[in-house]
Amino acid sequence: MKIKSALYEFWLFGVKQAYACLFGGFLLAVMIVTRYWYPIEGLHRYDFIFLAAIAFQALLLITRLETLRESVVIVVFHIVATIMEIFKTSDSIGSWSYPEAYVFGIGNVPLFTGFMYSAVGSYIARVWRIFEFEYSNYPGKWATVTLVALIYLNFFTHHYIVDLRWVLLAFTGVLFYNTTVYFKISHTYRQMPLLVGWFLVALFIWLAENIATYTNVWIYPDQAATWSMVSLSKLSSWYLLMLLSFVLVSLINKLHIRRAPASISVVEAKQQ
């Protein structure tokens, strides 16, 4: 009976994760399909992805598969990500590029790119609601906000001064080393160190990035001649960016904090 229950819970966990990834999964599917089959003349592939993302978002809202709060997360991420994209893809920086033509864009950035980052924020907001997240030993708001502000700033400044990502990762470890996330799959809450959970999400994003670059959605300079896997070093960037996403979602969603049980008073101890 225990094995059957464990298998059911594992299956349900996968179903809920797939539901949380609905928007990101749709975007990735569109990228893959249009890479190998795109028959629409007069509409650039990048523009089609942009319009498809908007249409899918509207569908999620109309069918109530997404809440208004989650749509706010997507808008915020789109703005934050587009600003960073404009900087990163500028001619003077050139961290990566978008090799295909488009109409809907700003500078070197097609507008669909913001939705790729929004997919991360959408996933976090949805998984937060679906698994009814609770936390213990979660740091104070100002500490987390300061951390992610420095992370976002470092994405820009490391091109001109020393890269502080490893310092920021160390600060993240110190700040969250004792933080646990509790999530409900069926009826019982399970738990995991929050730092481990973030790593698993960052790893998944890195795998999705490999698929996206393989389908020519964007490319890094070392992929211009021929495709190669994205360096594992990018995991650190995705980890920090995912942390930024998580804290932004925490400012919109309510944090449910588990309090430690009160210690037994001296009088009660004597009575026992």
Shape: globular
Work out the helicity level: 55-70%
Strand order of the largest sheet: 3-4-5
Number of domains: 1
The count of helical stretches stands at 10
Question: Ranges with pLDDT <50 over ≥5 residues?
Answer: 262-272
String of helices and strands: HHHHEEHEHHEEHHH
Structure overview:
The chain is mainly alpha-helical. The protein has one domain. It is 61% helix and 6% strand. The chain has ten helices and five strands. The chain has helices spanning 2-20, 22-36, 45-62, 68-88, 113-130, 141-157, 165-176, 194-214, 234-252, 266-271, and strands spanning 105-106, 109-110, 134-136, 180-184, 189-193. The strands form two sheets. The chain has a three-stranded antiparallel beta sheet. A two-stranded antiparallel sheet has the order 1-2. A hairpin with a 2-residue loop joins β1 and β2 (109-110). α8 (194-214) crosses α9 (234-252). The relative contact order is 0.13.
List the helices and strands and how they pair.
Layout: H1 2-20, H2 22-36, H3 45-62, H4 68-88, E1 105-106, E2 109-110, H5 113-130, E3 134-136, H6 141-157, H7 165-176, E4 180-184, E5 189-193, H8 194-214, H9 234-252, H10 266-271
Antiparallel strand pairs: 1-2, 3-4, 4-5
Helix pairs in contact: 1-5, 2-3, 2-5, 4-5, 5-9, 6-7, 6-9, 8-9
What are the salient characteristics of this protein?
272 residues, three-stranded antiparallel beta sheet, disordered C terminus, mainly alpha, 10 helices, two-stranded antiparallel sheet, 6% strand, 61% helix
Précis, in short:
The protein is mainly alpha-helical and 272 residues long.
